[in-house]
Amino acid sequence: MQPKEVIFVDYSLLWLDWKPKRALPAYTKRIAGMPATRQGKAAQRELMAGLKAMGAETMLCGKVADGPSIKLTESLGSGEKITLKRSGDGMELIGSGIALLYGVFHLLRHLALGEDYPEWDSSPAYAIRMLDHWDNADGSIERGYSGRSFFFRDGKPFFSERTRDYVRLLASCGLNACCINNVNVHANALKLLTGSYQRELKRIAVCLGEYGVSLWLSVSFSSPIELGGLETADPLDPRVRQWWKDTCGKLFASIPNLAGFLVKADSEGRPGPHSYGRTQAEGANMLAEAVSPFGGKILWRCFVYNCTQDWRDTKTDRASAQCDHFAPLDGQFRGNVYLQIKNGPVDFQIREPVSPLLGHLEHTASMVEFQIAQEYTGQQKHVCYLLPMFREVLDFHMEHKPEHDTVKENISAVCAVSNTGDDYNWTGHDLAAANLFGFGLLAWDPSADPEEIAREWSILTFGDDPVVTRTVTDILMNSRRVYEKYTVPLGIGWMCVPGNHYGPSPDGYEYDRWGTYHRATHKEIGVERGPDGTGYTEQYSPRLAAMYASAENCPEELLLFFHRLPYDYRMKDGRTLLQRIYDDHFEGYEEAQAMSDAWNELRDKLDPEVYARVQDRFREQLRCAKEWRDVINTWLYRLSLIPDEKGRKIYM
Ligand code: GCV
Fold first, then answer.
1. Above 70 in pLDDT, residue 4?
2. Is residue 518 situated within a structural domain?
3. What residue's CA is closest to ligand 1, atom 11?
4. pTM as predicted
């Protein structure tokens, strides 16, 4: 007799690891309805498996059930809209196959949270809710902090059961698009466009499709040269246009569920239309035309700036670059181009103003790009829950129109740079999984409450002990402000170690080419961005421009983003600017200590391995927070020779 095969899953299932429930409503005993589509069938399978894991003795009943049941009513052609309604003593889910899947995950989540009849009538706010992987073909991940890629291995796309579980995780929080490779397209990844990896890509694509997740690829603008043997990638050259059309014809025919391309062009050394004297619109439109016969779309990144700036040049302001390049082109992009815009004007710092470009596109589809990979926010060694920041951005009024002028109403899609890898817990820090889960829920409903999301995530992940839930929710909700306090002050950003972006180095980027300067002297710090400075504030609507341009009216948390100020500048509460920075750093460290202590209190309430893993991360967070505190405070003291008013230790 063959030994029975045992399958070991060497990773956690995160919030999909349904816990047994003491009491479940009677309707969980029966599933009625017979979905016909692949996604509908996946919904039924997930429902069955989820209920069983919660301890229900569920059976499939065919079209109708005898007694209270969960009825899956598949209605074709209704998009992603889902209705969950109480029907007698049971529940009925009505929607297309994919909508049923979203509905099933909603039902399971709410049963796990203890709600008996979670009625829901919902459509997602955006048709594209996406994760962008910066995974390289060799399996490494640019800005990856949780292991290696599970999409690529040994230079090729790679499929495993983990791919399926990842896609389940995405669908369970409402995400429906995934770009699997890095926007910096290196040698091996170029070949994704050719027939070389068709079989592997197809497997991934089919698996994604079963859970309603479309596949996207990052492509290099100069592929016609690198792969096609042409001497140019000029978007107006007929040979280049034909090459893209032919390549797309073959690719879309062989990869089902391929939705389009993500493109980083003319950005940080990547090739793009500017090399040929063409505009960003001409570049994007050429690709848009090539994918259009297949219903494809082009996501065109707006991260275009001069990254070879001379630090002596005090006129060029990196923050202005995106608007300078893209605002004048509004209306010139084809209908299947989406401009992908980072949430802030610079680069995913812990505090930036909202990118003004998000208010300038009246006639062009746009999407906001967040980063849940914690590149500048503690690299998944520090806890930093980013949902409150994302909500601030989405709720921000751009004030160019009398109404419907918030970012969430202006954009057509959302994406985030993924924070996942092949670590056991997917995200390095166990608490970083809240960013993944939360981003999905917020992408579905941009009005979702970050605190409620944190609470739900905690219960689904750690169980429903109220002390654990309160503690974890508090840690998450405080974490961004704490991180901000002990790292970079008042919106000035950067000051991190060049290259890897972890830990303090206040002058690290100061004489470099990346355009991220603080220009601190013994008297003052910051770059003036009002009309008498770089003029960046003028990119906002008049009221916002005036508000940001005045140090007095500028929101204090952004004061040093917009202004160059003396250390003795008086803050609203009467403290000097410098004292506020000293205080923030001392307090930030203490508050990080308090978060770590709070976690330690949960020792007896959590799985010992999870507890220890997170405790380890807190140890590193505290070490690093102390480093930030002492380096920044000492550096400022050495420049200014102004001591801390409270006489705390600063090093000489
Ligand atoms: C993928 C920052 C990061 C880069 C990243 C780039 C981008 O500069 O440090 O690693 O490249 O942003 O968003 O394209």
1. no
2. yes
3. 184
4. 0.97
Residue of 143, 346, 349, 368 with the most ligand 1 atoms within 8 Å of its CB, for mutation: 143
Q: Of 101, 122, 143, at which residue does a domain stop?
A: 122
**Within this chain, do residues 277 and 377 fall inside the same structural domain, yes or no?**
yes
Ligand 1 geometric centre to CA of 646 (Å) = 40
Q: For residue 611, what is the domain's CATH number?
A: 3.90.1330.10
Alpha-carbon span 50 to 92, nearest angstrom: 17
What does the pLDDT look like over 491-507, one tens digit per residue?
999 999 999 999 999 99
Q: Across the chain, what does the average pLDDT equal?
A: 96
Q: Are residues 508 and 426 in the same domain?
A: no
Closest CA to 411 of 495, 318, 299: 299
Is the CB of residue 184 below 6 angstroms from any atom belonging to ligand 1? yes
**List of residues 6+ apart from 296 with CB closer than 8 A:** 248, 252, 258, 259, 260, 261, 290, 336
Q: Could you tell me if 274 and 139 lie in one domain?
A: yes
Looking at the fold, whether 134 and 117 belong to one and the same domain comes out as: no
Do residues 520 and 385 both lie within one domain? no
Asked, for residue 432, whether it belongs to a domain, the answer is: yes
Q: Are residues 437 and 523 in the same domain?
A: no
Domain span at residue 45? 19-122
The residue written with tokens 């999870």 in the block is: 610
Q: Which atom of ligand 1 is nearest to the CA of 501?
A: 9
- Give me the residue label for tokens 């849940």: 372
CB-ligand 1 contact for 305 (6 Å cutoff)? no
Pocket test for ligand 1, best of 347, 371, 379, 516 (most atoms within 8 A of CB): 347
Q: From 150, 10, 49, 12, select the one nearest 461 (Cα to Cα).
A: 12
pLDDT for the residue numbered 190: 83
Nearest to 389 by CA among 487, 321, 477, 301: 477
pLDDT at position 202: 96
Which amino acid belongs to residue 472? V
Q: Which atom of ligand 1 is nearest to the CA of 264?
A: 14
pLDDT class of 8 with cuts at 50, 70, 90: low
The pLDDT value given to residue 23: 92
Q: Is the pLDDT of residue 5 over 60?
A: no
Choosing from 268, 362, 607, 609, which is the catalytic residue? 268
Q: Tens digit of pLDDT for each residue in 122-158?
A: 999 999 999 999 999 999 999 999 999 999 999 999 9
Interval 573-600 mean pLDDT: 98
End-to-end alpha carbon distance in the chain = 75
Q: Note whether 92 and 153 are same-domain residues.
A: no
The CATH number covering residue 56 comes to 3.30.379.10
Work out the pLDDT band at 464, boundaries 50, 70, 90: very high
**Residue at 74 is within a domain:** yes
- For residue 543, the CA-to-ligand 1 centroid distance in Å is 32
When pLDDT is averaged across residues 179-196 and rounded to a whole number, the result is: 91
In a domain, 202, yes or no: yes
Same domain? For 155 and 213 the reply is yes
Ligand 1 centroid to Cα of residue 549, in Å, is 29
Last-in-domain residue among 448, 475, 504: 448
pLDDT (mean) for 59-74:
94
CATH number at residue 186: 3.20.20.80
Quick one: which of 280, 144, 504, 506 has its CA closest to 152?
144
Q: Which helix (H) or strand (E) holds 53?
A: helix 38-53
CA 14–ligand 1 middle distance (angstroms): 27
Q: Sorting pLDDT into bands at 50, 70 and 90, what band is 189?
A: confident
Tokens 């509460």 belong to which residue? 573
Residue 268 is among the residues annotated as catalytic for this protein: yes
| Dist. CA 193 → ligand 1 center (Å) | 22
Q: How many domains does the chain have?
A: 3
A 10 A CB-CB count for 643 gives: 13
Q: What is the pLDDT of residue 1?
A: 45
